[in-house]
Specification:
The protein contains three helices and nine strands, in the order βββααββββββα. With 133 residues, the chain is an alpha+beta fold. It has a single domain, classed as START domain (Alpha-D-Glucose-1,6-Bisphosphate, Chain A, domain 4, 2-Layer Sandwich). It starts with a strand and ends with a helix.
Length: 133
């Protein structure tokens, strides 16, 4: 089974932009959780997490995006970071059969900066990094 990235959606309300993706990852949830909720997992495909306290209201610093807080945390399911210029970044995981994971992603931010193409490239790196060897 190969992963897939469904077409992203982009909405704008005033100066708030919301990007959403649905990514099908052919790996167990535990592996995908590590990729979205640990500094070691985030760095190869997204950005370095210079600080990440893995709990609700924990401190988080995502390089190039700023510092903030963990605003949602449900171990193995939901990791959400709200940081300075980066806005709110949410990873919601669901099981997909025996060995797959559905990643529901939302990025809410103000002003310019992020694009669907940039996130699609990140998710392609994520899928490449989680591919069975």
């Amino acid at each position: 089974m190969t992963g897939s990235i469904e077409q992203g959606t982009s909405l704008t309300y005033g100066s708030t932009h919301i990007l959403q993706f649905l990514v099908q990852v052919p790996r167990p949830m535990e592996e995908v959780w590590t990729a979205v909720a640990t500094p070691e997992g985030l760095a190869p495909w997204f950005t370095a997490a210079d600080r990440l306290e893995p709990r609700l209201d924990g401190a988080v610093t995502l390089r190039d995006l700023g510092s903030g807080q963990v605003t949602a945390w449900d171990v193995d399911r939901i990791a959400e970071y709200t940081v300075g210029d980066g806005g709110r970044i949410r990873f919601h995981l669901e099981r997909d059969g025996e060995d797959g994971t559905i990643l529901r992603f939302t990025h809410e931010f103000q002003g310019p900066g992020e694009t669907e193409a940039r996130w699609r490239a990140r998710f392609e790196r994520l899928l490449d990094g989680l591919s069975p060897r």
